[in-house]
């Protein structure tokens, strides 16, 4: 398999661990280095305060500085980028990541969890920020609904469902 010769990075942003679980399932399928995006200044614990902060950041185009540093991004061939939908957009920290690192010539693979309202403009924004990359078809699945107090759901039958869907998707896009 061609994939065995490729170096894979899986970068994800996750607040309530649903996207993290998807990232781990992807890693179990295809290997690679798993990296959580952390901020210099974490978002508030309070949900509404976070929603408000994110809305403001989206409005002003603020790119929150990342605490996470990735050594020699150049060595990776395939970069998976995972994130929740926030305010129907790509979360600002993932914008920071995509703008900060040179991903030209690489294959980029987005994946997403959301509360059931979908990916919004997030995959489109990944494409716009990765014009010099080959952006493959992304994966999305319903995750938590923090607004309603539903946090981590990616376990038991839901995790089993995700595993099947992810394996099928990876096959479809030719990465396993
Ligand atoms: C600040 C914020 C904004 C959100 N906005 C949306 C949204 O616009 N649409 C949606 O479907 N879900 C939205 N959600 C819900 C998350 O996308 C969903 O719970 C996701 O599974 C969380 O992933 P995580 O557990 O990896 O953090 C939002 C969550 C947060 C914290």
From TrEMBL:
Superkingdom per UniProt: Bacteria
Domain Flavodoxin-like: 8-174
One family name in Pfam for this protein: Flavodoxin_4
PROSITE patterns: FLAVODOXIN_LIKE, PROKAR_LIPOPROTEIN
Alphabetically ordered keywords of this record: Signal
Name of the protein in its database record: Flavodoxin
Organism, scientific name: Arcicella lustrica
